[in-house]
Each structure stands twice: as structure tokens, then as C-alpha cells.
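User: Run a structure prediction on this.
Assistant: Running it now.
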Amino acid sequence: MIYVVGKNEALISELKNLAGKKKVGNQDIEIKNSSSFDPSISSNIIYFTPDVLKPITDAASKNKKKGALVVAEVPGACKAGASINFIVAESKLKFEYNKNTAVKAGLKTNEDFKALAAVNIE
């Protein structure tokens, strides 16, 4: 399940469109959305839109060792607990990566992925 925290109707619409066409193995992809973080919702990916920052720390601590990827597009998100944070650099969409938070979340990491990041947060 992908849990989007914050407001971005275009993103929600696109994710639901893709989820209707794709599966992970033989499982359907479920999309949930709320304007604020609900720690009772269990998901594989938690995505924070730019209007939400504070609960990133809560999401990271709640999902420790549970294999949930925390993704954001919020300045400072990788330092707050996100594993991936989308940024604009040199007029291009890029991402920051925090390997330590990914490992703490119970995710497998890869040095090749780290090499793709515009910024690595340690």
C-alpha cells in the first residue's frame, strides 16, 4: 500500500490510475490519502507532500524495522527521517538519499542507488 500524506490531487489521481493497471506480484496496489499523518495506517511506502514536514520523524520512528519506505518532497526531510527526498537542483528533479534511515527502516540498500542520488545524507 502507498500512503500519501498531504494534499496533491494530481499525484493521487495518477497513483490511482497506475494502481488500477499494475500489480506487485499478484497483489493489487492500494492508495490511501489523508491530510495529516495517521500512525495507525500500515503501508509499504509513505509519501509526504511539500505541505507536511513535522510527522516525517513520527513516521520514521513508527516504521522502524517494518520495511516501509518514507519518501518526501520537503526541504530537510532526509535529516528528519525520510529515506528519499525529491529536490530541484540545476532546474532538474533529483533526489537526496539517507542510507542510514533506509537501513533503520529494515530496507535493503544498494551502493548503486546511493550513487544515483544528487545528495547523500549520512
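The chain has one domain: 2-121.
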